[in-house]
């Protein structure tokens, strides 16, 4: 753990924007750094528990990386919201689809991260129909 300028401590691997400003600004920063255009719709009025913010950030980051590497997409939509004790994240692309969650440790790693917090991930990826990754995490600790 290392202290930040605000006195909050964080794991060295967490980006400062996530620790200091929260998940909304961190997701927007991820979108700006993407190699693809990302339409962002983030509706978070308050900070979420740190484990939820960290899991959501890393799931979004990995999902955007996977889209850039494999999807042959032209645009990505990233949405995040918090409502009724649950956080939802969706990453949708217009790429080639055909993702098979059983093949590849990347998707399994995302699933493990969500399930560790009592959440779920679903993937819809018909061939030639793009891919939608939907995440739901409980937002109470």
Description:
By secondary structure, the protein is α+β, with helices and mostly antiparallel strands. 35% of the residues lie in helices and 28% in strands. The chain has 4 helices and 7 strands. A 5-stranded mixed β-sheet has the order 3-4-5-7-6. Helix 3 runs antiparallel to helix 4 (105-115). The radius of gyration is 15 Å and the shape is globular. The two termini are 20 Å apart. Mean pLDDT is 89; it is low at 1-12.
The spatial strand order of the largest sheet comes to 3-4-5-7-6
Helix content: 25-40%
Following the backbone from N to C, one meets helices and strands in this order, namely EEHHEHEEHEE
Q: Beta fraction of the residues?
A: 25-35%
Q: What structural class do helix, strand and pairing data support? A: alpha+beta
User: Tally the helices: what do you get?
Assistant: 4
Low-confidence stretches: 1-12
Main pleated sheet = 5 strands, mixed
Number of strands: 7
Q: Determine the mean pLDDT.
A: 89
- Assembly status: single chain
**Silhouette:** globular
Through-space gap between termini: 20 Å
- Gyration radius (Cα, Å) is 15 Å
């Amino acid at each position: 753990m290392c202290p930040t300028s605000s006195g909050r401590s964080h794991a060295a691997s967490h980006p400062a924007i996530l620790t200091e400003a929260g998940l909304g600004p961190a997701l927007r920063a991820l979108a700006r750094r993407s190699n693809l255009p990302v339409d962002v719709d983030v509706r978070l009025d308050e900070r979420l528990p740190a484990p939820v913010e960290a899991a959501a950030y890393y799931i979004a980051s990995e999902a955007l990386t996977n889209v850039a590497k494999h999807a042959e997409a032209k645009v990505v939509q990233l949405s995040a919201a918090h409502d009724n004790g649950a956080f939802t994240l969706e990453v949708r692309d217009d790429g080639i689809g055909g993702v098979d969650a059983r093949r590849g440790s990347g998707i399994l790693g995302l699933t493990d991260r969500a399930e560790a917090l009592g959440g779920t991930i679903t993937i819809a990826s018909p061939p030639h129909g793009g891919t939608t990754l939907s995440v739901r995490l409980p937002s109470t600790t």
